[in-house]
Design a protein that fits this description.
Radius of gyration: 13 Å
Distance between the termini: 40 Å
Number of strands: 11
Structural class: mainly beta
Shape: globular
Order of helices and strands: EEEEEEEEEEE
Helix content: under 10%
Number of helices: 0
């Protein structure tokens, strides 16, 4: 069964950094677009960042551009989201996702999510 497993969430103060990790269970994802989305309480899920596994092209939402960096480690089958200069409005459940074609979603595969809370 194909799985995406996130880790690295937590509670931090504004201005701090966190790195989220997403381990893909199969190398099937090696030809996919890997993305991160987030959902804050009472809001719709929104695109955050994505990367093409082959080639490494990256894409970002305007709200995180310059603060977040998405990357992948092919040897570890893992995608990362480095989040710097965190703001209270970044508080959300962050989901790792994958799709054969779509860059900003909706995606075919989803992880279970990891909570990120940024206090002011």
């Amino acid at each position: 069964q194909v799985q995406l497993v996130e880790s690295g969430g937590g509670l931090v103060q504004a201005g701090a950094s966190l790195r989220l990790s997403c381990l893909a269970s199969e190398r099937t994802f090696s030809s996919f677009v890997m993305g991160w989305s987030r959902q804050a309480p009472g809001k719709e899920r929104e695109f955050v960042a994505a990367i093409r596994w082959n080639g490494g092209s990256t894409y970002y939402a305007d709200s995180v551009k310059g603060r977040f960096t998405i990357s992948r480690d092919k040897d570890k089958n893992t995608v990362y989201l480095q989040m710097n200069s965190l703001k209270p409005e970044d508080t959300a459940v962050y989901y790792c996702a994958a799709d054969r074609i779509r860059v900003t979603g909706p995606y075919d595969y989803w992880g279970q999510g990891t909570q990120v809370t940024v206090s002011s």
